[in-house]
User: Fold Pyruvate dehydrogenase (Acetyl-transferring) E1 component subunit alpha from Pueribacillus theae.
Amino acid sequence: MAEIYQKEINLRDYSKENLMAFYRTMVKIRKFDENLIQLMHEGKVSGFYHSGIGSEGLSAGSIVHNLRDEDYLYYNHRGCNQKIAKGVPLSKLYGDFLGTVEGTTRGLGAGIVHSADVSRGVLGQAGTIGSQFNIAVGTAYSAKFQGTDRVTVCYFGDGAAAREPLHGSLNWAGIYELPIIYICENNEYAISCHTSEMHAVKEHIADWADGYGIPNCVVDGNDVLLMHEVAKEAIERARKGEGPTFIEAKTFRHRGHFEGDPYDYVDPEVVKEWKEKRDPIKNFKKRLLENNICSENDFSKIDEQVDHEIQKAIKTAESAPLPGRERIFEGLFA
Ligand SMILES: Cc1ncc(C[n+]2csc(CCOP(=O)(O)OP(=O)(O)O)c2C)c(N)n1
Assistant:
């Protein structure tokens, strides 16, 4: 049975600069998201958007200071969180939603699920949930075969974890001791279906990994530093050739499955509690203030810088042209 990951964390073991980098990344993710929703309301972005608000600590903590550009990353259905933490430029992400050539797909549009940035190890994937499990085995195997210490981090939701490709992937990762870190973003719901209705393992989703001999644990995904530490240990093991790890990170969506979802299948009191008591950004800020690591002024400065960065990114993405017809044939080999 999966253990609950716990660790005494001394804030003084981190530099102020490193702590602020976690804050900056979480704020960047949240403001990117809020501004994208605003663009939807203005009628500039259409289609479905799956907001990642409420889970910023999970992605920022596991990626910042842990992953290198060349490490591979597969994102989940709220994957802008992970792409931003990995350093994919905001203008390119906005470009994918606006359909302009600034986007990573150079105008084909992508939303969350098709964008790619090969220079940052984000190779792209399909919109079917769980499509990342098998290709994650491929990149991890290639890294091992080539004798590098590159790792593959594979994010997915509790719903994706209920699909069969997870098991093929865990089996291969277990047999070949592949350098994969599986990170399950357990926000309790796949659309309106609760985790308890989807998994035969009743206690923890991470328990699936036991059957494949893969070390696993459950962690509070909204504690950015705990998330950082648990991922760091797993990544270090993978880099040393000590194989895969499965981390189940608990979190919750502040918004519905997609923008427009009435979100009436969850008790509003539960959502309120997560927003008020378990918000990863609010809690991290409070902790740094209480420990006299940072001042209100330090936070305001970052907030302003991020606002500026976001407005600039939107402008760049919006002012880029739509693709010409020839784009249809670019990269087409058959
Ligand atoms: C194979 C497949 N079935 C159904 C869908 C439709 N779909 C999109 S997101 C989603 C739920 C995903 O839930 P989860 O993996 O828990 O991620 P979350 O949305 O909670 O972040 C479903 C069923 C899909 N994209 N692919």
Notes: The pocket of thiamine diphosphate is lined by residues 50, 76-78, 127-129, 157-160, 185, 187, 189-191, 257 (CB under 6 Å).
